[in-house]
Design a protein that fits this description.
single chain, alpha/beta, binds pyridoxal-5'-phosphate
Length: 219
């Protein structure tokens, strides 16, 4: 079932779009099924769960922290996490930089933007991100590499609204690229799209979709 669902999702994603299989709440055995079918990028939204699973699973898995991140949790995954999707404050950037420095790594991160209508969805505005990226502190974080942006659309059945929200994130990406990351090839990721809306996200320029329930079943 998991293998079949994985193949189905992969068949619907262009080659240049990365699939992050979101395995939160799912057991190790389920992750191994996807792994054996060739999947290597997995996403978790809780640091503790990510760390516990990573310890038990093959070392060539690339782990993505996709959810809201608390500063005091960064240190547990700093040695190995592949990409941190949900960065939404300067303080978090500073802490990630500090922990990455300790283990002598350059940590790749994405800036999270608030594109949906729900108050509960985390993320910055373009103005907030601009202010952060303009600050001298941020410019001196040598162990951080900002690789792009991430966002979640509203939970709604209104497809044009979802598409519009994804388009807004794409525009934010373009704006930041022009203003801060010109000629920096690593600034290239737009992490958007989940089980219910990844096709819409891909239409709007997603480079990375985070798909959980469609692969692993409901939670
Ligand atoms: C859970 C989660 C996903 C995956 O959601 P599905 O609807 O199960 O595909 C994607 N992104 C984030 C940030 C999540 O927390």
């Amino acid at each position: 079932m998991i293998e079949k669902q994985l193949q189905l999702v992969l068949s619907e994603i262009p080659k240049n779009v990365a699939l992050i299989a979101v395995s939160k709440t799912k057991p190790i055995e389920d992750i191994l099924k996807a792994y054996k079918a060739g999947q290597r990028h997995f996403g978790e939204n809780k640091v503790q769960e990510l760390v516990e699973k990573a310890a038990l699973l093959p070392k060539d898995i690339s782990w993505h922290l996709i959810g809201h991140l608390q500063r005091n949790k960064v240190k547990y995954m700093a040695g190995f996490v592949h990409l941190i999707h949900g960065v939404e404050s300067l303080n978090l950037l500073i802490e990630i930089n500090k922990q990455a420095q300790k283990v002598n790594r350059i940590q790749d991160v994405l800036l999270q933007f608030h594109i949906g209508e729900e108050d509960t969805k985390f993320g910055m505005t373009l103005e907030e991100a601009t202010e952060i990226l303009n600050s001298e502190i941020a410019k001196n974080l040598k162990n951080i590499r900002v690789c792009g942006v991430m966002g979640m659309a509203s939970f709604t059945s209104a497809q044009n609204q979802i598409s519009q929200e994804f388009k807004n994130l794409y525009d934010i990406f373009k704006q930041l690229q022009k203003e801060f990351f010109q000629s920096q090839n690593h600034f290239k990721e737009i992490s958007m799209g989940m089980s219910g809306d990844y096709q819409l996200a891909i239409e709007q320029g997603s480079t990375m979709v985070r798909v959980g329930s469609k692969i692993f079943g409901g939670r």
